[in-house]
Write a structure and sequence with these properties.
binds 5'-O-[(L-methionyl)-sulphamoyl]adenosine; alpha/beta; about 675 residues; about 20% strand; 6-stranded parallel β-sheet; globular; 5-stranded antiparallel β-sheet
Amino acid sequence: MPDKFYVTTPIYYVNDVPHIGHAYTTIAADTLARYHRLFGHAVFFLTGTDEHGQKVEKAALDRSLSPKAHADGMVDNFKRLWKKLDITNDAFIRTTDSEHVAVVQELLQQLYDKGQIERRTYNGWYCTPDERFWTEKEIVEGKCPDCGRPVEQISEDNYFFLMSRYQSQLIAHIEKDPGYIRPESRRNEVLGFLKTQALGDLCITRPKSRLAWGIEIPFDRQFVTYVWFDALVNYLSATRYLSPPAEGASDPSARQRFWWPADHHLVGKDILTTHSVYWTAMLMALGLPLPRNIFAHGWWTREGRKMSKSLGNVIDPNEVVDAYGADAFRYFVLREVTFGLDGDYSHEAFVTRFNTELANDLGNLLSRVLTMVRNYFSGAFPAPSSEQQSDRELRDIAAGLPRMIAGHLSALAFSRYLQDLWTLVSRANRYVEENAPWTLAKNKEMDRLGSVLYHLGECLRLIGLFIAPVMPATAQTIWDSLGIEKKFADVHFTAEAAWGGLQPGTTVRSGVQLFPRIEKPGGSQGSSRANADKQKKGKVNMEKTETAAQIPPAAAGMDLIGIDEFAKVDLRVGKITAAERVEKSDKLVRLQVDIGTETRQVVAGIGKSYGPEDLMGKTVVIVANLKPAKLMGVESQGMLLAASSGDALAVATFEREMKPGAKVK
Ligand code: MSP
C-alpha cells in the first residue's frame, strides 16, 4: 500500500443543489481517505465545485445574479452537506480560485507553445445545454445524440487541442494497465470506442461573444476556456496550493511532485470519457504522469425511475440524514449497490437494511452485551478463560477481516467489504444464542460467562474499528460505550486489528442505543421525526431490548403441535411473475409464482386489498404441498400466506431478498 494516498471526487456544478449522486461519490472517497488515515498514510482527499461554463452562467442569469455571486451562494450547499455527512475532505477547490485560474492559463500556454493547440474555423453542430460539438454523422435527426435536444449549426473560429494525436497512445496505456479504468466493463467500452472510431481534436475555447463566464485564454483574450478543460485541471492545480503540507514539499512544484498522480479519480459513468480520454490525453501532451486509476460508478434511480427535478423525485441526502443520521445513509449507499453498477434507492430498501443490519444485527448486539456486562459483572469486562470451539470461530473470522478489507477497499468493492464484515456481526449474534449467557448466569458458570462476554466485547471493539471508515460516529460510539478511551484519529489500524486489544477490567459506559428501529416507514424519504430524535438523543431503554431477548416465547394456552407435524407443511419462497384478476370476482386474483423448480398457478383471495400491479414482483410465502383445488373454475396449485384482521389484509413477505424455492421454516 502506498504511503501517500490522493483521492478525488468530480467537482460539482454549482447550477444545482447537491443530491444523492454527489453524496455517493463523496462518501466513497471519504471512506477510502479515512481508511488510509488509519494506517498513518499521508492523505489528500479533494472535492470541490465546477463554477464556469454555460450551465452556471444560465443558472445565475435565471436568478438575476452575477455568475460569481451565484456560485458563492451555491457552494455553501455542498460544504454544509459534506459537514453533515461527516466528510473529511482535506481541501475544497473552486474553479474560480485565482490559483486554479493561473494554473489553467499556464498549462494552456505550455500546450500552445508546444504546438499542441491550433486555431481553426469550426463548422458544425453545437448542443448548447451540453456545451458539446457534434459532427454531422453523430447527430440524430437534428438532435443531440446525448440529450436529445435540438442542435444548432454554427461556424466560428476556435482553438483545438490536438487530441487525435493521442489515440494510439491512449489505447496502448489502457490495454497495458488493466487497473487504469475500472470496472472492467467500462474499460472495455472506452477501448471499444477508441479502437473503432477516429478520435477528433477537442475544441477547448468559446468565443467571449457567445460565453463570457470562463477562464480567459492567455494567448488570445477574445476567448474563454471550455469548461471541461478548466475543470479537469483542478486535480492537478489543487496539489500546488491546496494539498496538505508534506515533508520537503513546500513550494508549489514540489507539492505537485509529492501528491501527483492521484491514486483514484472517482467519477460517475456519464463523465468517464472526459476523464479517460480528454484528461488522459491532456496529461500525455503535458508530459505528466497519469493517474493510477479512474473508477466509474453507476447511477442511482429512485424506485426504478430516473431521478429528475421535473419528476420531483430527486433524493435530498439532507432529508435522509436529518431523519436517520449520517452513518445510516453512508452505510446504505455503500452496502446497497456494488460500486460500478447502477442502483435503486427506495425508502423500503433503506428501512429494511436499517432495521435488519443496523438496528437488529449491530445495535442489538451492542446493547445486549453492555447490559449483560453491567448485570453480571458490575459493568467491567471480565478476563477470558479457556477457549472453546465457538470462541475460536469468532476469532478466526475477526483475524481474516483486515486482509479482506484491504483487498476489497483497494478494489473499491465497498459492498463486499461491508458484507464480509457483517459475517462477524452475524456470527457474534449467533454466538450469543449458542452460549446463552443468561443460562450460564442462572447456573452460576461465571468463568465461562466471563469468557463469553469478553469475546463479545472484543468482537465489538473490532467491529468498531472495521466500520470506522464507513460509519465513523458509530465506531466511536461503540468504543466509547465499551469504555475504550481512544479516539479513532489517534489509533493505528494494524495495532488495533489484532485480537485481544480489549483490556479486562475496562468499564462500560451507559451508551446510546445505536439505530433505534424505524417503526413506521413514513412515506417518501421517510422523515420520522420521532425516530430522528431518538437517534440523536439515544434515549431508548436498552434494558428492555435485553429482557425481550432473554425471555423465551411463552406458548401456554395454545394447541401445541410437534415439530414433525409442522414439518409436513412445505413452505417455500415464491416470486410473483404475473398477476391478474379472476373474471367476475372482486376477491380472487390469479398469480403465476416462481418457486425455484417450477412456476405455479395460485389463486388467492386478496383482490380487495391488492391489485395485480401491487403484486407483480413480490416475494411471498407459498404452501407448496397443498392439494390442488378449483376456485371459481380456476385451478390453484398452492396457497399464499397472508394475515387478516377485520378488513385489513397483508401478504407475508421477507425482510430481505430471498431466492425463489428457498424453504421457509
Ligand atoms: N462538473 C462536472 C464534473 C467535472 S469533474 C472534473 C459534473 N458535475 S455534476 O454536478 O453534473 O455531476 C457530478 C457527478 O454526479 C457525476 O459524477 C455524475 O455521474 C454524478 N451523478 C449525477 N446524477 C447521478 C445519479 N443519479 N446517480 C449517481 N451519480 C450521479 O459532471
